[in-house]
């Protein structure tokens, strides 16, 4: 059953994404649904932004087909461990994911005001704690253990909004958003296997499979003559919401089927987008700027300003992500203090920012004097 739960969604997602992406490219170009690439010469290339439109349908087909195959031919008891409560939770999550997906489609096609976008996101985020999945225990992180509902449920909504909006901000460098998401879903899929959550494992495997063609196309497209494609807000919001649902779900398995404090292992997959968004927001507040307006101050922008080529930026950030995943995984499985583990994450992150600032300033001085 394990092989079917992994192979079928993985292969099916890859095949569907490989087939659908070129057709989305054609539609995007014909309808002029493109934006300038920030990592190419200005005016040289305009990249289609509708890649994320394919994610939700492919996810539903891949996961749905896998469940049908398992129930029909291999494991009629595949979902027997899923009680009625879990079914309701998944349905709430699916409703929220659908809402976030449609919001992204509207934003990519027509544009949505910040107020409307924020209200719809709050509605979608609220569906997760309403389903019964919310942060009810931090397992000693920052000295906090059990949380009452009146604190845990609003905190869950804030975390969903935080994670969901952090992912789209990485969709500027070719392959960055899809690469980081692939790392996250691969690791979370392994956690699902360890925690005895076959359905969540199937979802994570399907997401990894469908993101691979995006990553491959954006990383090697220039060498083989293929056109790049962005995930857009549709892809970013879909990936971010699904990640938040899975991470919050895993946090409740800490001390049950997974090690106590597994929430920090999940955090390791999101260190880069979460801490980068926090740094950017604080910088904007200090400079009296609107925190909701985009600028060129994210980690990938700063690395490019430091003299790195986009391809090197991509693999540098992916390597950093691997480090944080491994660091937090080792810490949790070794029983380290979660607060100290978080402090370690922050210290490493601050050190990286100092190094980036050094090379950024050095490169700026070189250009000024050159």
Notable characteristics:
mainly alpha; globular; 13 helices; 370 residues; single chain; two-stranded antiparallel ribbon; 4 strands; 71% helix; 4% strand
Biggest pleated-sheet summary: 2 strands, antiparallel
The ordered string of helix (H) and strand (E) elements is HEEHHHEEHHHHHHHHH
Anisotropy-based shape: globular
Which residue ranges are poorly predicted, with pLDDT under 50 across at least 5 consecutive positions? 39-44
Task: Please explain how this structure is put together.
- The protein has 370 residues and is mainly alpha-helical.
- It has one domain.
- Helices cover 71% and strands 4% of the residues.
- The protein has helices at 2-30, 55-74, 84-109, 114-130, 149-166, 176-194, 198-224, 232-251, 262-268, 271-286, 299-305, 310-333, 338-369, and strands spanning 34-36, 46-48, 137-141, 144-146.
- The protein has a two-stranded antiparallel sheet.
């Amino acid at each position: 059953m394990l092989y079917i739960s992994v192979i079928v969604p993985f292969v099916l997602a890859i095949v569907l994404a490989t087939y659908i992406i070129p057709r989305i490219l054609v539609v995007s170009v014909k309808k002029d649904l493109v934006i300038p690439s920030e990592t190419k010469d200005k005016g040289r290339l305009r990249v289609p932004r509708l890649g994320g439109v394919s994610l939700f349908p492919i996810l539903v087909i891949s996961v749905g087909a896998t469940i049908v195959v398992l129930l029909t031919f291999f494991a009629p008891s595949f979902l027997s461990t899923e009680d009625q409560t879990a079914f309701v939770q998944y349905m709430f999550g699916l409703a929220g994911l659908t809402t976030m997906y449609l919001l992204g489609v509207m934003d990519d096609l027509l544009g949505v005001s910040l107020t409307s976008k924020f209200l719809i996101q709050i509605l979608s985020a609220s569906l997760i704690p309403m389903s019964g999945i919310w942060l009810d225990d931090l397992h000693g992180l920052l000295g906090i253990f059990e949380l009452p509902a009146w604190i845990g449920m609003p905190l869950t909504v804030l975390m969903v909004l935080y994670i969901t909006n952090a992912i789209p901000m990485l969709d500027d460098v070719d392959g960055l958003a899809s690469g980081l998401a692939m790392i996250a879903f691969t690791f979370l899929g392994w956690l699902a296997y360890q925690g005895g959550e076959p359905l969540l494992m199937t979802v994570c495997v399907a997401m990894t499979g469908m993101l691979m063609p995006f990553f491959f196309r954006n990383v090697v497209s220039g060498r083989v003559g293929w056109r790049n494609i962005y995930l857009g807000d549709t892809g970013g919001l879909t990936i971010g919401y699904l990640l938040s649902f899975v991470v919050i779900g895993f946090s409740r398995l800490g001390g049950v089927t997974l090690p106590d404090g597994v929430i920090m292992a999940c955090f390791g997959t999101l260190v880069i987008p979460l801490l980068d968004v926090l740094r950017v927001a604080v910088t904007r507040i200090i400079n009296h700027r609107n925190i909701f307006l985009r600028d060129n101050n994210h980690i990938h922008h700063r690395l490019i300003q430091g003299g790195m080529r986009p391809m090197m930026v991509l693999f540098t950030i992916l390597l950093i992500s691997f480090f944080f995943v491994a660091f937090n995984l080792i810490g949790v499985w070794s029983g380290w203090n979660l607060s100290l583990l978080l402090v370690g994450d922050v210290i490493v992150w601050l050190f990286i920012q100092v190094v980036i600032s050094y090379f950024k300033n050095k490169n700026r001085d070189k250009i000024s004097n050159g």
